[in-house]
Structure formats: structure tokens, C-alpha cells
Amino acid sequence: MAVKLAPESPASRLSWLGAAKPGRDVFRFGISIFVGATFSAVQVFVIPRRLDLATYGQYRLFLVYVTYIELLNFGLVDGAFLRWAGRRPDTIAFEWRVIARWLLGIQALLIGIALLARALVHDSTIQLYLIAFAVCATFVNVSVLSSYALQASGDFKRAGRIFFLAPALFVLTIALTSFHSLTAMLLAYVGAFAVAAGYAAFSVMRVGHTITREAHLPSDLSRSTLIRSGAPVLGANVAAVLARSADRVLVSIVAPITSFALYGFASTVMVAASVATQALSRVALAHAARRPLSDRAMFLGGFLDAIATAYGIGLVAEPFFEYLVARFLPAYVSALPIVRALTVGLPLSVAIQVVLVGTLQSYGLVRRQLLVGLCGFALVVIFCGTALSLHAPLWIVAASASAAAAVMIAVGDVIVRRVVVEARGQTSLQFIAVIAAQSVALGAALALSDNWMVRSVTYGALAVLPTWLMYQRVQKHGW
């Protein structure tokens, strides 16, 4: 006998989340971000020592394009997240089982296509990439679907673990073995995501353990409806990823593999931006969905202060990072100017996605969200493409990417205020000014001394005021 899930009223959907505070969930995700960033930092110093420069460049090339594998769920996962906003955990857990089966079917088909394509090409590196992309897509998309289910259920603790579990396992595997080939590295990478996907799926199953018999499938739940609703969001998200990584794509096309290895090494700093964007955007949207329309823009605007505060604090560690590179990876010292240029754009990239794109998404303006992503992508292509065409040094290319992000946040601000009435009293100018002040403080500290401790102390003294002011604004938000 089937068990039908009880219908949900708006009040029942929200009651289980009523006491939730964004600050608590941001803190939980912040811990996950910190742990994930720590393991990512370890990767920076472990993997280049295991691979020669050309092989490391091939590995970084894989990382550039693996960021797009969420395209291979065709919007099914994003449609599920939109559907689950504000629903009860048991409902989400039941529907997750159904949607996960659909997702695995799609991924199995893609693995078959990859195997067929592998037989048609003769380059061994391309063959390896094809299989690694297809298999990794399965595990990543299952992890993302499960993470969305946990976030929609209000379980940010387990959802946060998913963010750092794969990089942690990957680093531990590399540290405990003696891998020296691209094949071994990709095997370890995909294996780490396989374990993370298993943990994520098990966590969601625990949410719905009270449902022991098959429930009736809701009449409005189908693959086609989820893909139709999720595809525009997926497109907008991919456009945002393109805007963040277009510089690396261009460099990978134009520059030799050894030069790309240096740029790829420097772009490791953007991993923190990517992880922070994923974590903060989901916290922001989950909480914004439970607020009236009149409050959403103001609530999401508060994340600008949180991002500026985190950036100001995080820059204290940058001189120590440079010291470690000079001490343990002397072959990559020439990449440090690129690191500095990309670091400036890090908080801007996060703010664009979390605040501007998040505001548009929370009001259902997906087409405008896509417009922001495409504008960002176009600006990066124009700025970085011009620098590359002039044969500028790679740090100039990186600075061009950061400049494009600065222009984009101003353009996106205009787009948001034109279409969202509630956002017209807000501006990101103060945020940009604070980021500029913090970045100038770091530049001055790096110029005044060669000692990393003196640099960190000098930066802290110069940047303490703007960072403290941003922290005080975060406190006023009641987080």
C-alpha cells in the first residue's frame, strides 16, 4: 500500500526553519570554506613537486574544463533546487531518491558516449580526459544534487562537509602515495569525488529515513519540468563560471603549456572564490527564499560587508603564501605577480555571483541573471584578449581579468537596480572602495619589506580600519 505525503502549506514549509539565522549557517559554511581552502593550499605545494612543468600544465588544463561538467546534468539538478526551496525535509528526501535515479541514467548515457568517442580518437591524453570528465561528472553531479537537498532541508552542517571532503581526500591520497603521472593524479581526483558523492547520498537518505514505503510521485514532478525550470539557471551559472575562468581558457589556447602551468598555478587562489561563491550563494538563497520580496534585496546586499570583511582578514596570510612558494617551489616564483593580480579580483567575483546574481535569482529574474553572466564573460574576453593580443606579460592578463570584474560589478549593479525596485537604494560603490583600500594596503606592505612577517603586520596595520568598519556593518545586520 502506498503512503501519500501530506500536502504542504506555506506555513508548514517554513516552520521547521523559523529560528534559522544566516550568520550561523554562514559560519558553518565558513568553516567548510576554510578547511577546503586549507587543503587546496596544500595541493599548491604538493602537486607541483610531483609533476614536471608540462605535466602540471596538463593537470591544470583538466581543472579549467572540469568546472563545466555540471552542464552535463542539463539543468535537472538546478530545477530540483528551485523546487525544494522551503519544502519539508522528508519531502525533499523522497523526491531526491527519484531525481537521483533520473540523474544517474543521464550520466550513464554520457559515459557510454565518452567510451565511444574514446575509441575514435588516437591521442592518449584526450582519451584520458574524455573518460575522466564523464566519470567525474557523475560523482560531482550526485554530490551537488545531494548538497542542494541538504541545504534546502536546512542541514548546512553536512552540506558544508561535502564541499571540503573531496579536496581533503584528494590531498591525503597524494600525500600518502608517490604519484608522478597525469593518469594517477586524475584517478585520485575522480576517486575523491566518488567517496564524497557516497557520503552526500548517505546523508540525504538519513534525512528521509521515516519514509519506509513507496510514496506517490507528485503529479508535477518530472524530468522535463525540472530541466525546463533548471536549464535557464544552469545557463546563468555557467555564464558566471565562464566569466570567472575565461582568462584561463584564453591563456590555455594562446600560451605554451609551460606558461599555462604558471598561470594555472597562480589561479589556484581563485579556488577560494569558487568555493566561497558556491557556499555563500546557497546560504544566501536559502534564507532569501524565506523572506518577503521587500526584504530580499537588502538582506542579500548585506553579504557585501561579509565578503569585504573576509577578504580583509584573509589577505594577512598572502605574504606567508609567497614565502612558502619561494622556499619550497622556486620554479613558480615567477607566478607570484600573477597571484597578486588575480587576488584583487577574488572578492569582486564572489560579490557578483552571491549578491548581484543572487538578487536577480531570488526575484525570479533568470534572464537578467544570464545577462549579467554573459556581460561578465564578454568583458573578460575583451580585456584579457586585448592583453594577450598585445603580448603583454601574464600578470597583466591577470590584472585585466580583475579589472573586468570591477567593471562588471558596476554594470551588474546598474542592471539589478533597474529591474529590482527594492535594490534601488543600495550601491556597491562602498564595497569596491573598501576592496581597493585593502588591496592597496597589501601592495604597500609587499613593497616596503621582503620579510613575510613584517609584510603581514604592516598590511594588518594599514587595512585594520576598513576591515573593522565592514565587520561592524556585518554585526548590524543581526547575523
Report the principal-axis shape: globular
The helix content is: over 70%
Low-confidence stretches: 1-19, 210-214
DSSP E strands, number: 0
N→C terminal distance:
46 Å
What is the string of SSEs from the N terminus onward? HHHHHHHHHHHHHHHHHHH
Largest sheet: none
Instruction: Please tell me how large the radius of gyration is.
Output: 22 Å
Please describe what this structure looks like.
The chain is mostly helical and 479 residues long. The protein has 19 helices and no strands. Helix 3 (53-66) crosses helix 10, helix 6 runs antiparallel to helix 7 (156-176) and helix 13 packs antiparallel against helix 19 (452-476). It is globular, with a radius of gyration of 22 Å. The termini are far apart. The model is unreliable at 1-19 and 210-214 (pLDDT under 50).
How are the elements arranged and paired?
Blueprint: H1 10-15, H2 22-50, H3 53-66, H4 76-84, H5 89-120, H6 124-152, H7 156-176, H8 182-207, H9 223-254, H10 257-266, H11 269-288, H12 293-301, H13 303-314, H14 318-328, H15 336-362, H16 366-389, H17 394-419, H18 429-448, H19 452-476
Helix pairs in contact: 2-7, 2-11, 3-10, 4-5, 4-6, 4-9, 5-6, 5-8, 6-7, 6-8, 7-8, 9-16, 9-17, 11-15, 12-15, 13-15, 13-18, 13-19, 14-19, 15-16, 15-17, 16-17, 18-19
